[in-house]
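As promised in the previous annual report, we have extended the structural survey to additional targets. Below is the entry for Peptide MFS transporter.
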Amino acid sequence: MSTTKGHPKGLYLLFVTEMWERFSYYGMRALFMLYMVQALLFDKETASQVYGSYTGLVYLTPLIGGYIADRYWGNRRSIVAGALTMALGQFLLFLSACYFHEAGLAKYLMFCGLGLLILGNGFFKPNISTMVGRLYADDDERKDSAFTIFYMGVNVGSTIAPLICGLVGNTGHPEDFKWGFLAACIGMLLGAAVFQIFKNKYICDPCGNPVGTAPVKADARKKEKAGGGQKASSARVWLMAVSTVALTLLFSVNWDAGASHCFAGADWIGSLIYATTIVVPIVIITDRSLARAEKMRIGVIYIIAFFVIFFWSAYEQAGASLTFFADEQTDRHIGGWEMPASYFQSFNPIMIVVLAPLFSSVWSFLRKRGMEPCSPRKQAIGLLLLSLGYLYIAFGVKGVEPDMKVSMIWLTGLYLIHTMGELCLAPIGLSIVYQLSPARFSSLLMGVWYLSTSAANKFAGLLSGYYPENGTVRSFMGYRIENLFDFFMLFVFMSGAAAVVLFLLSGKLQRMMDAHADKK
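The corresponding structure token record, generated without further manual editing, is:
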């Protein structure tokens, strides 16, 4: 194995670029729900649906961006194009907030801005993650550490974003939301500028060759001839498109309505996300160019990604229902100062920065004694901690009336427990995808990995819509939600059940990973 000390400077360039992109995303996210409810006067259920659709599509488009990068543009061009597109989207949100009194115009600008953010993220997200692994030789033992460092960039950006954007945008005055969106726009422009200036100097493989350039057409044709296609053939692409459309229509049918109203009330975006999450993985794994060992490795990615859906759909309540809870039912006074509700979204990344070295030391301690849990088992522990976090806050709000506020200790404790769960689950995800993906499918499978996050975020928006308000009683799959205790217990049951099943499967999954780890 390669044992070169230190890390290439390209890793830190990717770190900074990702940091500013996450600053842009989380800065906007910290304000978005509050902007819709307080400035545009959306009700909570509608705001949750918009939020879920946006965050779901944000993680759906990396599939397209990964495909275009692998086949046409390369990683570098895709990253720059994505960053500039997202900056423009943030600027449209700024304009929307400038004209929030003109509801029609403000909503039009907001949805146009969201569309550009969704499109830009598709080009940015899978390509910057893929480039991390390409800075190292295949046998370089620093690779896992590199992904951990890269993940810290995510958390640095998401730490400072709610603080800065929340400070200027979440002031209690609707006319100030625009400054938060403008700060997010500036952050994205900074990230694009830094990457564009230094990419040619630092983004190189161990031999000094540039990484992430556009694929050479001659090489692409050679791969297609020898390997049955670098991606899907035209027929398979059409099959994927037709199957996705058909399944989207099927998911959108209202079976209780008459034939003339069978699509009444259809959630087209949700149906598209769920259909794509099913169709695309099937199309990829049935590609004839894949060897049996490659299919086994991809299968492991799919199984782990399935359980990740349960984690993120509960975890991402931070930007949805937990934002409502922080704003309306949490006592945020510290002395004579009332902390903005958006600041709570900095708690998790701050805790990650503090606790990550501790968790690394714990894993190292257990590894030396042959007691370290395998990767799938760590993810099961993460799901269990997520469940315990919601159990903690559920008892904190039990019996609390809707007009009463509770101490910050309950929401802070939830974020602390969830952070420990995230450290067990999230950092190893990108590394697993990179290690198990066939090289010619690396960006596409990174996009598939984000498909699970797409489905999870859409599901998170759906679940956030069950947040109790005005004494309304709702039912989710037969489970009655009358108050906050019932609402939080829903996530206890969901993530707890997923943790148990994944724990039982973890040994088998690790054996599958070990059996094929040397056949990449």
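The chain has a mean pLDDT of 86. Residues 484-516 form the longest helix (33 residues). These points will be discussed at the next consortium meeting with the crystallography subgroup.
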